[in-house]
Design a protein that fits this description.
Elements lengths: L6 E6 L8 H17 L1 E6 L1 H4 L6 H18 L6 E5 L5 H12 L2 H5 L2 H10 L6 H16 L4 E4 L4 H18 L7 E4 L33 H9 L17 H14 L3 H7 L5 H27 L2 H30 L7
Parallel strand pairs: 1-2, 2-3, 4-5
Length: about 325
Amino acid sequence: MTTDRPRVLSGIQPTSGSFHLGNYLGAVRQWVDLQDSHDAFYCVVDLHAITVEQDPAQLRENTRVSVAQLLGAGLDPERCTLFVQSHVPEHAQLAWVMNCLAGFGEAARMTQFKDKSAKQGSEHTSVGLFTYPMLMVADILLYQADQVPVGEDQRQHLELTRDLADRFNHRYGPTFTVPNPYILKETAKVFDLQEPSVKMSKSASSPKGIVSLLDDPKASAKKFKSAVTDTDTVIRYDEHAKPGVSNLLAIHSALSGRSIAQLEADFEGKMYGALKTELAELYVEWVTPFQERTRSFLDDPAALDTVLAQGAEKARAVAAETLAQTYDRMGFLPAKH
C-alpha cells in the first residue's frame, strides 16, 4: 500500500440489509473516488451497530451484505483496505483509552447522543450509545488518518477526535495524527421522496420515501414516479420553494453527471412526469448492474471471506503498531512472549 498519499478512514454501519440511495450518493460513491488519491481504509462498523439491540443472525448477515454492496459499488481490495471493525480488536482496546481520556461533560454534549437518548428514554439507552463517539475516535486515530470524510452530522465527533488526539499528544508525547475533515464537494443530499424536508434515512423515512439499493428496481422506479412535488409545473431548483423537485433534480444530477442548470434547460416546458420517468429509468439503469455485482460477491462466500481476512490483516498491521505505541506511552507493562 502506497503511503505517500494522505490516509483517509471511513465506516458504515451494517444495521439494515440494504444501503439506501442516500448512503450511496452521500458517502460510498466518494469512497470509490478516494481510492485513487488516498491511502484509503474503509470498515463496516459492526461494533457501533450494537449500541441498540441486534438479532445476532441478522447482524452477521447484514455485515456480509454490507461488504458485498461496498464491493459492488466499486471498492477494490487492491486499491483500499476494506475490513470488518470487530475483526480488528485494537478498535475496542483503544476505545477504552479514549473513554478514560474524555471528560463526562464532553461526551454528554454530543448532539446525536442527546437526540437519540431523548427519543429512547434513559431506561432504553445503553452506556454504549453514550460512549460510542469514543469508539469512533479510536477508529480514526488507530490508522493515523490525515483526513476523515464527514457530513455535517458527524462534524462534532471529528472535533472530539481532534481534541482527544491533541490532549493525548500533549500529555504523553506525539503519538496520534490530528485528523482534518475531508469535506465532500457537492455531495448530493438525498431527501425522503414523500417528505422532502427530511433526509432519507432508515429511521426517519417512510417505506414509500426511501430507495433501498437491493429492492426490486421496478418497485424503486414506482417510488420515483410517485415522489411528492408541488402544485406548480415549472422544473427548477429551489430548495425552499420546491424541495421535492429540487431533490429529484439533485438525484438526477448525481446519477447522470449533468449539472442542475443543464437539467433545468433540458426539462424547460416539460411536466414533472417527464422528470420522474427519466429519473426512474436512469436509476434502474444504474442499480441493475450494481445489484448483479453485489449478488456475485454474496454467491461466493469463500471469496468474500478472503477479502475480509486480507483486509483485517492489512488493517491490523497499522492498528497494532498504533496501539503498542499508545500503551507504551501510557506506561502499561509490556507483555513478554
